[in-house]
Prior knowledge:
Elements: E1 2-5, E2 43-49, H1 67-73, E3 78-80, E4 86-88, E5 91-97, E6 102-107, H2 121-133, E7 145-150, E8 155-160, H3 167-170, E9 199-201, E10 211-216, E11 228-235, H4 239-248, E12 253-256, H5 261-266, E13 270-284, H6 298-305, H7 310-316, E14 322-324, H8 348-357, E15 364-370, H9 378-386, E16 390-396, H10 402-406, E17 413-419, H11 423-430, H12 445-456, H13 460-476, E18 480-492, E19 496-498, E20 512-514
Parallel strand pairs: 2-11, 15-16
Antiparallel strand pairs: 1-5, 3-4, 5-6, 6-8, 7-8, 9-10, 10-11, 12-18, 13-17, 13-18, 14-18, 19-20
Amino acid sequence: MRIRFPLARPLSRVAPVAIATTVLFSTTACDGQSGGTAPGSGRTLSLAIIGTPNSFDPTQLIEGQQTYIWDSVYDTLLIQDNEGRLVPGAAESWEYSDDARVLTLQIRKGMKFTSGTPVTSAAVKATLDRVRTTSGPNQVALAAVASVETSGDHSVVIKLKRPDGSLLPALSGAPGVIGDPKTMTSKSAALNPVGSGPYTLDKGATVNGSVYVLKRRDDYWNKKAYPFSTVKVRVIADRTASVNALKAGEVNAGSVETAQVSTLESSGFEVKHVEATAAGVLVLADRGGSKLKPLGDVRVRKAINMAFDRDKIVKQILRGGGKPTVQVFNPKGDAYDPALEKTYTYDPAEAKRLLAEAGYPDGFSVPMPSLVYTKPFEPTIVQSLKEIGITVKWETVPAQQTNSALISKKYPMFFTMDGLSTAPIEVRNNFNPTGTRNVFGTTEERFDSLLTRANSEVDPAAAAKTYKELNAFTVENAWNAPVFYVGTHWVTKKGIRYLGDGSSTFSTIRQFGVTDQ
Length: 517
């Protein structure tokens, strides 16, 4: 038996990225349409983003707002639509074997790189092999791949060491781009990408680190999904400067803080609020208690979850630009369960009782890393935990050492802001034994059984049910203490519309459409 996915399983979607408090993550959408003349042809999208692309090398691509640029240059094997579903991209169809260990993709015919070279199965294999064997941010996404083989010019066969439910959504992001084998290993690849995507980078008009100008390809197979003939992306890290650029007409789309919404609406801008694009989570990493013994007791972890007045934090710190939660999963995704939000309420008295029952009536102390993006939340975290008897000792960590500090096992607890994604990727990053947020490699028999089932399941409905069970397990066993979701306010000029609703959080130009003037 083989399961075929011409439009694939409905999965919402990004790999986690730490962000500053004021950064409101973007989300994505695409219409999955192809052919025809794009409506609004000739228009320019001038987009303000906050992050500079680190590199155009396929092995070093970072998912975040930088994706708006590189996703316009490269094709990905799969695409996500407005509802977070996987639809055909460079791969026009795909199928899994009945044991979910062999994935066969049929590559679309007629595609070409900007160099004129045809896109073939050999190019797909070369890119996948390079990403999975080269140290970089996307290598982990292909860790389950044993080999990549070709069958003719347009068929790719991926053989897995073990079933991996996160592979398909990963192939709609950075791990699924297709680079030109003739150029992607050259030194120039970091700044001069050669892809088969809908746009080419106008090198003459581009200023690296500041402005990126993209010109649409008239021969692109999915041209109708990209209604803008020119896309001009400006990197504006300062939020006030971004608002000023919108008002001055220098850009016609961008994300803004909650406090700026009413002013821009009164100026004629259209505002679209996406309720959740990232999550603020107190990661209770040392669940085995090897570094900090109290965290090995589930009663202590539950007590920590009861220490936070989540509603107050959202109202006073996020100024209403988010929502409280006890889950790390996208609220529009397969794993999210609204019933779980009742698991923990703000109850310091009950938290103290649980700590005493666990043998810590006087509480305990815990070191935590003070990071660039944690500073606005540190007073609240200190106060909340102090109220139940836990003393936080902050240790300053330089920005460039953030990732190394978090994976060092020096800190049994740490606060993070991670972008939301699809359920399989969220599980992989937060809870897999090798996940970036499962620093101490926590594993339990029940969780492992559910994870194996989820990874092996090729039926969408059955997979969604299992991811909900995984979520329930981690919430009920207090593997983390999620606090809130952060939302995004997208502002667009008349004639342009933001199409996303948070189901997909992958940053792509397909999330912008045109309206009648």
